[in-house]
Amino acid sequence: MAKMWAGRFSKEVDESVNAFNSSISFDGRMFAHDIKGSIAHATMLGECGIITKEDSLQIIDGLKDILKDIQNGTLQLDMSAEDIHMFIEAELTKRLGDVGKRLHTSRSRNDQVALDIRLYLRDEITQISKLLQELVSTLCDIAEQHIETVMPGYTHLQRAQPITFGHHLMAYAQMFLRDIDRLNDTYKRMNYCPLGSGALAGTTYNIDRQMTSDLLGFTAPMQNSLDGVSDRDSCIELANTIAMIMMHLSRISEEVIMWCSWEFKFVELDDAYSTGSSIMPQKKNPDITELIRGKAGRTTGNLVTLLSMMKGLPLAYNKDMQEDKEAIFDSVDNVKLCLSTFIPMLKTMRVIKENMRKASAKGFINATDCADYLVKKGLPFRDAYKITGRLVAICIEKDLTLETLPIEQYKELSETFDTDVYNAISLDTCINQRTSFGGPAPSEVKRQIEVTRNALKG
Questions:
Q1: pTM of the entire structure?
Q2: How far apart are CA 446 and CA 269, in angstroms?
């Protein structure tokens, strides 16, 4: 394929350079967005009288035909083309002759590329947001079923205080809600149109940038032509948001991996979302969650790639910026893949409530409630803390729990204790009395679910 910029050069570019320079293998996915942008551009050219209305309409029809042919498989992308933009323009010129050559009037590939990536990523943000909304809704559904399912809460991976499985899941729901907000914010800042920035200095043609911005559903044209072609903040910001989504997915995946183990056995994954071992017939592996955990590092790497790529670039466009697409496309593909696999896995996961309850009965996770019992009867918290710590040491020495330690032993350390301490330290009391805002009491978890569902409705 002849190069659109070949006029300046006296000989052909070496084939190895062509291959090195080419981006159609990865930017080819933007064919629909490139055509959408070109249709808006051709419309504006015709309306402003920069080209004739007849040429404008011919170009638009030609572009629509190319789109249809690519979509139905009649037209295959030419992998020898430099990029998707040059491929479509060359195809249009092949079909329309000189009329096709008029499409690029008052436009540079620099603002065309900047436009296409924004159009593409806008659509991807919408898809990722829908998946996140489904995930948050799923977490709410499962949490609603387990607002009274007692489990140990952990700090330092040590049993700490009693909570419920519903309360635990709603913590993740809040994380993913914030991710949705971040996506919305990214979309808002991304939604400005670079088309019309030209190579870097705009154009001498009397174009209407507001028209193309409106036709493409943008908030407004970008204010500065240099910024229009050299900005990749939108890619970086989306990569950062995806890295955070994947970090949150990795955290809950890590917990699912632990919960599936025989050491915990809090949940069991459905056979459809597990794998086995080639040599150990008893194994049921949580490979989905392990892969998510691994892919989270990959999306973090993509963010670092984009930041490193941009950190030393002078204005305006530099070829380094071609590296934006593989990194952000990889992040987009992986977060969608992980979410679309994780959600049904979560929906089909079996929660083993009795094992959560058994684990809650060990580890003295009601020790804080024992101290609070004394505080409510007038002791300073630090004194109550010390007495409870000594009680725990006695229980460990005698292989007892706070629930099974005789009342006489309690009274030896403080006459403030009475038999009502056993009710105060029961797991159900510990949960039900934690009614502080955001706590694990069933009434509070119900409120959190309601607030979260309302947030999803927007």
A1: 0.92
A2: 26
